[in-house]
Amino acid sequence: MEGTAAGAGGLDAVPALEIDPVLDDRGTRIIVCCGSGGVGKTTTAAALGVRAAERGRRVVVLTIDPARRLAQSMGIDALDNTPRKVDGIKGSDGGELHAMMLDMKRTFDEIVEAHADPARARAILENPFYQSLSAGFAGTQEYMAMEKLGQLRARDEWDLIIVDTPPSRSALDFLDAPKRLGSFLDGKFIKLLMAPAKVGGRAGMKFLNVGMSMMSGTLGKLLGGQFLGDVQTFVAAMDTMFGGFRTRADATYRLLQAPGTAFLVVAAPERDALREAAYFVERLAAEGMPLAGLVLNRVHGSGAAGLSAERARAAAENLEEGRMVDRGPGKTGLRGVPATSSEPSHHATAADSSARPSAAPEAAPTADVTEEHGTDPDTDQDLARLTAGLLRLHAERMRVLAREQRTRDRFTALHPEVAVTEVAALPGDVHDLAGLRAIGERLSSPRGGS
Q1: What are phi and psi for residue 437, nearest 5 degrees?
Q2: Among 57, 84, 56, 58, which Cα is nearest to 70's?
Q3: How far apart are the C-alpha atoms of 178 and 246, rounded to whole Å?
């Protein structure tokens, strides 16, 4: 029934996601917060980092969010590609928190500098096609996030790495990044550009050069001769590094499949976000990657869930139409109800009484009594309008609550094996460590404290 809060059966049918055991397990070395954009992944990752550090872990949070809110909430002027220690952590047993924000281009530069001799590295870094590729090629951000994860894990400086995956259009982009980069490196266009360096013999080179000249002439008209030259120079310089990209991507992919990794799928209680979460859950299962559970973020609740939307709406209508209580002889006369009636209007309900405690079941006082006790009909009407407005707001909240629960229950019906925790929506943005701690407490409470 529309507007009626769904029961708790949807959550009762699935296991509860317990966050603290995941954070406390020293065997857990990587937590990946994934999901579609705009569902609170960055805040969730930061809150987990604060809670884990204050429970004794040495944590680094790798965020991909270019917004400055995370740095500000951690008391840091700015985040960059270098982990920075967060002050104010009330950790025990050496717990510490570091945070960093992925710099996609700088990470790509570091790979080139680490795996090429100085002269070749300089040639690559100064190449215009490389500069364009490293700054915005589709999939580069996701691939570099995996590269940085591999670098952090290899340093072994932290016993827990929390990754906030890129805000991609699709949550699957993160897992697909190595494959997409491999497809680019193995593509026909790249192979064709690399061919002159791989064909031996003068005759072969002569034949190939004729073909390359024809191709270059055609592509030069389409792309521009300078651009094509930049691409060919880039490919020649990067040739020896292509295999390294694949090797590291494969190693990081295996790292994500290892028992020490835990995926947390973060979603909002909305149809598109939960559909994306369902795709991700299925993909993780297909790839054999360890899923800890689903964090359902920004869930609405109500302190008066027993008052349904229908009852609240009916009570509001009664108040607005003056049917809750007759106020005087004039108005009651118009309604054909005796002013001395001791019964409430037949339209009133139990919800009406609870919605407006000041309303008594007896008839409203007459004008003489009004003057004697100093009550003002206008004030009474203002109170009725205010109460009706609050009842309508409550009815709308209950409709939202019911819609969220139906959406959640569709997910849990499809994936009853996935542990779930709900995190109640906060009235404002998180802007400091105290706010992150509050989110961490909600995450760790049964069902997220919603």
Answers
A1: -65, -40
A2: 84
A3: 7
